[in-house]
Amino acid sequence: AETSERHWLEELNDEQRAAATHTGGPLLILAGAGTGKTTTLCARVAWLVAEGVPSERILLLTFTRRASREMLQRARGLVPASSRVLGGTFHSVAHRLVRRHAAALGLPGGFGVLDAGDAADVLDLLREEAGHAKARTRFPKKGTLLDIYSRTVNAQQPLSGVIAEHFPWVEDHREAISALFREYTARKKSLGVIDLDDLLLMWRALARDEVIGPRLASSFDHVLIDEYQDVNGLQVDLAQALGGFGCDVTAVGDDFQAIYGFRSASAGHILDFPEHFPGTRVVTLERNYRSTQPVLDAANELAAQATRAFPKRLRADRPGGVRPRVVHIRDEAAQAEEVANRVLEARENGSDLRDQAVLARTSHDSDALELELLRRKIPYVKYGGLKYLEAAHVKDFVALLRLADNGGDDIAWFRVLQLVEGLGPASARKAMAVMAGDDARGAGEPSEAADAGGAATRRGLSASARDEAGEGRLAAVPDRLAAWPAAREVIPSATRASADALIAALAVARDEQRAGPRAEGLREVLAPLVKARYPDGGVRVQDLDQLVAAAHQANDPRHFVAELVLDPPQSSADLAQPPHLDEDYLTLSTIHSAKGLEWDHVHVLAVYDGNFPADMAAGTSEQIDEERRLLYVGMTRARRTLSMYVPVRYHHRPRGFDDAHGYGKPSRFLTPEVLACCDVTRLPDDPLNPRGAPIVTARRLTVSPDSLFD
Ligand code: ATP
Ligand code: MG
């Protein structure tokens, strides 16, 4: 292509352009927030395509589906042929590969993917079966078990080390936990399901296989990874496996924005990149194009508190700007009112709602604000926190979709049976035992083997699923549907009629779904149940409609279901195109979900000690460092104005304890140095709180009686 067609390269600064057009060998862009790392990565994708690299030989890995969608849109805007670049999260790319090689991995064609909630449920079941639930010993609960399991797999550390380092209080149960984890992997195999961690493990197994590995790696010339500071050990292995076969790896990130340590990511990986990829060219970017200097001054002071940071100070390219505000305020209701006022004021002054965001540590921090926004009819979309997919009715729908693919997915069956009114977990479990041939573990009399790798369905497979899986051959999971006539006999008679109706409807919808995967039939099955079950059933049915619409938009419906699980949409607006694309709405987001994004006006809620850092995370100095980085990520999202609120009286929700009200001190991260870069205000005073919060006066006041002497 002609250079004249590459005018967009001219919009980059020299360092960015050098990175975008780098040739030969691994490349790392290690630079601060807002310096154009993601911009440069998009330009690099476009440049590679313009240089003649076939777009399907370029792989772009991001942390969310939304990020890859947006980045590819930008690249396409520069060079239209970028549209065929393969983009996605590590998990979604893994899913494509695992599906293609399902047979080699011993998986049935319609294997299901467990989300974190499902995985925890399976662990819970095994815990119960092993008698740990009854025992008086304090055996860890399912959430802790999943944390331990996931950390072990993702950090690729031996279980004993993980327990000693992160979960010392379960040390006494180490052997039992180890046995339970083995049982967990066996059970997944017999059910024909895998979990999120398996996807990465399986990708790695494929990448390391002497036959498949080189073929996989040679299918890409370039792998580009954004937000590399948040990769875990397994993901580093994958990048290295790809890089080992002549595929060039480009990584970008900022060690000071690493906020996924709790998921076994480590900022150390980005610093070790040059070691992992010999011959790496390291590019640093200095200038920040996002924010104005007063915002960066405060952020720089925050960063300077870190003990072991890679030193960098952000310098603004934009002129002017106003100092960030630190607002001490009575309580969460007053905070909500103040934020709403400011948002409307900014809108009066010409900023659309979509240029404004309210960020918080957890999604609960905005409860009061949501009420206020509803009251004032300010439209908003919420990201992060309780994921859309975790909503019960959405999970129900996904369970139905999963059954359409894999009739042996007992996790989905368990959920679907309980859709019947009056049919509880105990009855569901009994029915399932019958459906599984009187063996809850999934072996038994199979009626139909799952479709293997797209081949014809085999019937009447004699060996049990379990034996097959154990032998490493194709795992065929029997469909449970055929055993329904026997199973219905064990559930309460009052529920039989509606259960029959559900099963019949499911069978019909399933055949339709198989003929041409469309979710309408399943929606018809679920909609009346949802309407009957939830007081706000009408609204929830609209969510189902959106799921159906999104399924239609997906060009690969089966992958669509997995995608839902792999990268749960953050809200119904994130699922498909937002319902009213032209409507203006405010963004409410957790800081984790705001990574990489930016808005003109940013409000950070609840910046009190106990939230930043969280009580739960205030243990080790590493945890506190991560908490500081979290606040840093929040602050550096602001383009023009930044406000941080310290509610003096707040609603405290420590995990595992009752809610309580507390009196807040400002976050310890708001040191005098940070506050010296901010305007500190106190709004409005609370006469009911005589204790108040100590106000740190940040302004350097010059008090002089000189004027009296005129
Ligand atoms: P983060 O660390 O938060 O992910 P980043 O380093 O990825 O930030 P970008 O999001 O790429 O930064 O860029 C921040 C802003 O700066 C964007 O609005 C982008 O359009 C703008 N920008 C980047 N490079 C330039 C440039 N050379 N000239 C003008 N604007 C730029
Ligand atoms: Mg970025």
UniProtKB/TrEMBL annotation:
<dbReference type="Pfam" id="PF00580">
    <property type="entry name" value="UvrD-helicase"/>
</dbReference>
<dbReference type="InterPro" id="IPR000212">
    <property type="entry name" value="DNA_helicase_UvrD/REP"/>
</dbReference>
<keyword id="KW-0378">Hydrolase</keyword>
<dbReference type="InterPro" id="IPR013986">
    <property type="entry name" value="DExx_box_DNA_helicase_dom_sf"/>
</dbReference>
<feature type="binding site">
    <location>
        <begin position="31"/>
        <end position="38"/>
    </location>
    <ligand>
        <name>ATP</name>
    </ligand>
</feature>
<dbReference type="GO" id="GO:0003677">
    <property type="term" value="F:DNA binding"/>
</dbReference>
<comment type="similarity">
    <text>Belongs to the helicase family. UvrD subfamily.</text>
</comment>
<dbReference type="GO" id="GO:0005524">
    <property type="term" value="F:ATP binding"/>
</dbReference>
<dbReference type="InterPro" id="IPR014017">
    <property type="entry name" value="DNA_helicase_UvrD-like_C"/>
</dbReference>
<keyword id="KW-0547">Nucleotide-binding</keyword>
<keyword id="KW-0347">Helicase</keyword>
<dbReference type="Pfam" id="PF13361">
    <property type="entry name" value="UvrD_C"/>
</dbReference>
<dbReference type="InterPro" id="IPR027417">
    <property type="entry name" value="P-loop_NTPase"/>
</dbReference>
<feature type="region of interest" description="Disordered">
    <location>
        <begin position="439"/>
        <end position="469"/>
    </location>
</feature>
<protein>
    <recommendedName>
        <fullName>DNA 3'-5' helicase</fullName>
        <ecNumber>5.6.2.4</ecNumber>
    </recommendedName>
</protein>
<keyword id="KW-0067">ATP-binding</keyword>
<dbReference type="GO" id="GO:0016887">
    <property type="term" value="F:ATP hydrolysis activity"/>
</dbReference>
<dbReference type="GO" id="GO:0000725">
    <property type="term" value="P:recombinational repair"/>
</dbReference>
<feature type="compositionally biased region" description="Low complexity">
    <location>
        <begin position="443"/>
        <end position="456"/>
    </location>
</feature>
<dbReference type="GO" id="GO:0043138">
    <property type="term" value="F:3'-5' DNA helicase activity"/>
</dbReference>
<keyword id="KW-0413">Isomerase</keyword>
<dbReference type="GO" id="GO:0005829">
    <property type="term" value="C:cytosol"/>
</dbReference>
<feature type="domain" description="UvrD-like helicase ATP-binding">
    <location>
        <begin position="10"/>
        <end position="292"/>
    </location>
</feature>
<feature type="domain" description="UvrD-like helicase C-terminal">
    <location>
        <begin position="293"/>
        <end position="596"/>
    </location>
</feature>
<dbReference type="InterPro" id="IPR014016">
    <property type="entry name" value="UvrD-like_ATP-bd"/>
</dbReference>
